[in-house]
Amino acid sequence: MEEQVLKASRYYPVVMVCGQRQVGKSTMLNHIKEPERRYVTLDDGNARRLAANDPALFFETYGYPLLIDEFQRVPSILLEMKRIVDEKALKGEDNSGMFWLTGSQKFQMMQGVSESLAGRIAIFDMSSLSAAEIEERPAALFRPDLNSIRERLHHSRKKDIHQIYEEIFRGGMPKLRSTDMERDRFYMDYINTYIERDIKDLGQVGKLNEFYDFLVFMAARTGQELKYDEIASAVGVSAPTAKSWVTILERSGIIFILRPYYSNITKRLVKTPKFYFMDTGLAAYLCRWPNAETLENGAMDGAFFETYAVSEIVKSYFNAGRPVDLFYYRDVDKKEIDLLFVEGDKLYPVEIKKGKMPQKPDKNFSALSQFKLQVEPGIILCMSDELVPYNRDSWYCPVSVL
Q1: What band does 37 get if pLDDT is binned at 50, 70 and 90?
Q2: 182 CB-contact burial (10 Å; exposed 0-12 / middle 13-18 / buried 19+)
Q3: Which whole-number Å values give the CA distances from 38 to 60, 62, 121, 317, in the listed order?
Q4: Could you say which DSSP state residue 211 is in?
Q5: 306 touches 338 (CB < 8 A)
Q6: Are the C-beta atoms of residues 235 and 217 closer than 8 Å to each other?
Q7: CA 183, chain centre distance (Å)
Q8: Which among 185, 186, 183, 207 has a CA at the least distance from the CA of 195?
Q9: With a threshold of 0.70, does the pTM exceed it?
Q10: Tens of pLDDT, residues 151-194
Q11: CB count, 10 Å around CB of 159?
C-alpha cells in the first residue's frame, strides 16, 4: 500500500488510512513519511484536549505536513483541516499531502464527517498482512482471468494443506509475524483492548460481556449468511442491537460483508449478505481452536478455508487502493457460487473448495446464463498443485496463488 499512499499524497491534500487495531497503519506511514512531516497521536491526552478545545491552536502548534494518528478520537478537527486546505488552495498554493491520518474505524461510515472533506481526501483501507506480504513476494490486485493467475503463479510458493491451516490459525497480525510473541497472549490482549477502548468509545454497547459473546458467536459463523434475528436470539439482545453491533465490527475492520449479486431480471435471488472475518487467526482464537491441526480436521475447516481465500482477495483490493467489487450468488433453489467478479459485461465465477480435485465444482455456474452477460471461465480455488482445466469452462487453481 505504500506506493498507493505516496501517489495519492501527490494529488490530495489529505490521505487517510483506516483499519482494525494493530495492523500497522502508523508503522507503515512513519516508515514512508518525509523527514519534515511531524507526528502526533490523539491517544495522547494533551494533544486530544487541545484538538477538541481549540483546533486552530492545535494546527498552529503542530503545523504541516503532519501525520495524525487515531484521528477518530476527535473527528471535529476535520472542519478546521478543511478550512486550512481550502485557504491554501484559494491562495493558489500547492496543498497536496498536507495531512496524513490514521483511524481504526472506517471513514466512509462515520456520520457527518465524510461531507467535510469530500473531494479533498484519498481513503485507504488496511488489513493485517496478506500472504504475499508475509512471504515477501509481489502480488498485484487479484483478478480471476487466466492470464493474471498465470502471472501470479510465477511468484507464488507451493503450500500443502497443513501449511495453509497453519497460516489460517496464526493469522496475519504484524506483531505476531515479526516477533516470537505467544499467539494466545496477543489475541487475548487484542480483544481486551478492542472491547475496553474502541467499543466503549463508540458508546453503543452497554454490556461488554454480551458483546464478547456476540464476537464469539460471529467468529463461529464466519462465511455464513448474516441473519440478525438468529444473532439476537443466540446472544440475548434485540435485533436492532445485533444490527448495530454488526455495523461496529464492519466499521472497525474486523469483518468484511459480502453482498449478494442482485439483478432485476429475476426475483429468485437471495438478498441476504454473507460476512467473513478479515483476520482468520482472530476468528480461530475466538472459536477456541487449540491448534492448526484440530482446526484443519474440525467441523469448521471448510468455513475457515473459504474465509482465508475471501479475505486474501479482499486484502489485494485494499493494497491496490481499489474499491472491493465482489459479490456472491445464491437463489431460492439454494444454488450458490462463492464469489462473483463483475467486470463490465463479463461475469467471473469463483468456487472455493478445500479438496485437491473437488468433484462437480462448477455445478452451479450454469445458473449465471439468466443474466445475459458473458460468463468467463470459472476458477475453483482449491489445493490443486497447478492451474489445470477441470473442463472447457472451469479451471482448478492452487489457493497458494492468493
Answers
A1: very high
A2: exposed
A3: 12, 7, 19, 29
A4: H
A5: yes
A6: yes
A7: 21
A8: 207
A9: yes
A10: 999 989 899 999 999 999 999 999 999 999 999 999 999 998 88
A11: 17
Query: Which tens digit of pLDDT belongs to each residue from 265-285?
Result: 566 677 899 999 999 999 999
Beta-strand (E) ranges in 120-189? 121-126
Task: State how far the Cα of 246 lies from the Cα of 266, in Å rounded to an integer.
Answer: 29
Torsion of CA 3, 4, 10, 16, to 10 degrees: -120
Q: Which residue type, as a one-letter code, is found at position 309?
A: A
Position 333 scores a pLDDT of 86
58's grid cell = 492545535
Grid coordinates belonging to 390: 477441470
List the alpha helices (DSSP H) in 34-130.
45-53, 55-62, 77-90
As given in the structure block, the three cell numbers for residue 64 are 504541516
Work out the pLDDT band at 207, boundaries 50, 70, 90.
confident
Which has the closest alpha carbon to 126: 257, 9, 11, 278? Answer: 278
> Are the C-beta atoms of residues 260 and 269 closer than 8 Å to each other?
yes
Rounded Cα distance between 152 and 160, Å, is 18
How many Cβ atoms from other residues are within 10 Å of residue 366's Cβ? 12
Question: Taking the CA atoms of the chain, what radius of gyration do you get in angstroms?
Answer: 22
Closest C-alpha among 160, 163, 165 to residue 385: 160
Residue 278 identity (one-letter amino acid): M
CA distances from 205 to 162, 202, 242, 287, 387 (A): 39, 8, 10, 22, 47
Query: Is residue 173 within 8 Å of residue 128, measured between CB atoms?
Result: yes
Q: Where are the domains of the chain?
A: 2-126, 131-401
The CATH number of the structural domain formed by 2-126 is 3.40.50.300
